[in-house]
Backbone:
């Protein structure tokens, strides 16, 4: 399924690894940040409904 | 005479609540479509034969070229959003500009890193200070500059306006990147995809991959905008609480 990349395999796999790593980190940050903001907003709204 | 009740699509979308509802429904489908298209493009790409000149390293093209395209498209979005903020005062324009900058920086970083790794076996060097590579590096610094400028100013309205002015000034880098390979003698090869210089066996996976990464970009941008809208709502509530506490604590 995955072809032999020959003598330049290190350059090819490194490129894909960097792409996956950097994009993965960006996606994780966006998901984490979204959850954090939603949690903070929910805390404010809960506090306001109690007062 | 009663006031006009009709709103244009732009006006409707300018409402953050409408945007949040609409984007919440679209985002899962957009993300799914992006994942399918990227997987499809890369799967076909990995089955292509080695290029007669570049051998197997041509497979780097399926991520390098979409990342390079998107690094510039993200800047167009930053600039158009900045224009929308300064001229039309569109409520979501600044949200869009702020969300697009780090995503653009990430795609620029991927384009530079994969280009460098492609350059070593192709040109014999990871880096050369030629016009194309240097101008893309400037684009990365521009993104970082936009983010640094925004975060260095406490007054958010002022930060938005100054960042928008810098973004509009910096748009001059886009034609420099695009035409650098024509204007100067560069190590980087001229654009061959649009002009039909690419064999269809490589063109098909490249276009599928490019569509996939573009969909991913829009999904990430939408998610970043949603986060920013939530952040502004949190900040508005924080300010309201501080204001209320100050009024309660103030002497009669």
Residues:
């Amino acid at each position: 399924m995955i072809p032999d990349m020959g003598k330049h395999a290190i350059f090819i796999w490194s490129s894909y690894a960097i792409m996956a790593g950097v994009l993965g980190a960006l996606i994780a940050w966006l998901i984490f940040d979204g959850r954090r903001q939603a949690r903070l907003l929910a805390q404010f709204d809960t506090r306001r409904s109690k007062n | 005479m009663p006031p006009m009740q009709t709103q244009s699509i732009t006006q409707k979308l300018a409402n953050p609540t409408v945007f949040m509802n609409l984007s919440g429904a679209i985002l899962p489908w957009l993300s799914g479509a992006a994942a399918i298209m990227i997987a499809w493009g890369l799967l076909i790409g990995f089955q292509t034969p080695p290029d007669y000149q570049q051998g197997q390293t041509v497979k780097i093209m399926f991520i390098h070229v979409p990342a390079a395209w998107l690094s510039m498209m993200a800047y167009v979005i930053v600039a158009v959003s900045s224009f929308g903020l300064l001229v039309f005062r569109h409520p979501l324009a600044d949200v869009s500009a702020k969300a697009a900058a780090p995503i653009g920086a990430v795609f620029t970083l991927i384009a530079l890193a994969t280009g460098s790794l492609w350059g070593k076996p192709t040109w014999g060097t990871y880096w050369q200070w030629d016009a194309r590579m240097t101008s893309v590096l400037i684009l990365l610094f521009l993104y970082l500059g936009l983010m640094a400028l925004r975060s260095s100013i406490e007054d958010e309205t002022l930060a938005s306006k100054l960042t928008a002015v810098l973004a509009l000034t910096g748009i001059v880098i886009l034609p420099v990147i695009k035409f650098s390979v024509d204007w100067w003698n560069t190590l980087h090869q001229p654009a061959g995809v649009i002009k039909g210089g690419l064999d269809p066996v490589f063109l098909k996976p490249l276009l599928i991959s490019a569509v996939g990464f573009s969909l991913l970009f829009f999904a990430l941008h939408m998610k970043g905008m949603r986060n920013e809208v939530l952040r502004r709502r949190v900040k508005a509530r924080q300010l309201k609480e501080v204001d209320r506490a100050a009024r309660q604590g103030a002497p009669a």
